[in-house]
């Protein structure tokens, strides 16, 4: 069953459309259960290659074959890969984002969430999940489910290239000790709500999987794990290949 986001509850898509139409100050407000509200400029989704962080540029350099760009936003990664001659399918749950990508020239676009069976109609050499893209899995249970589902999307020898972050720093006390409940939910499971103007979206789950737990879940799902880089904000790039 599709869980695409309709225009009536799609603040991200509306902000991207406004930016596309020349309102370059369009900014989303992001609410979460772990931090104060934060502004997210729509411009972030329209970055050129040299505005992207090094981890994302590395991921683009590591792409091969037919690429499935999951959570593609306004299509900045897909457009860069297209310019390099790749065949790319860009997917996002936001109907507004999909429309923007079509207007920007992304050649193959679909409105799906990452778990839809329809994605498995063809196989891909690279699954690309950037901008903390592993977060699309939502929870640890969702991560386990996604890693199993991804195997049905990969061609023989295929790979997953994804970024995620360790957000344990949000729970650090002044003396450096960590203050999360070890008996509670995993600290990287976050609830978000996006707001743009008067339009507020549905609350959704997002997971920031630290490197060790990502490795544990990926190896349990039968993947070989290779970490390709890490930045000074505890974000990392990982390549997963089926063993």
TrEMBL record:
GO terms for biological process: methylation. It comes from the Bacteria. Keywords: Methyltransferase, Transferase. GO terms for molecular function: methyltransferase activity. The keyword Coiled coil does not apply. CDD domains: AdoMet_MTases (cd02440). InterPro entries: Methyltransf_25, SAM-dependent_MTases_sf. Residues 67-158 form the Methyltransferase domain. It holds the Pfam family Methyltransf_25. Signal peptide: none annotated. This is Methyltransferase domain-containing protein.
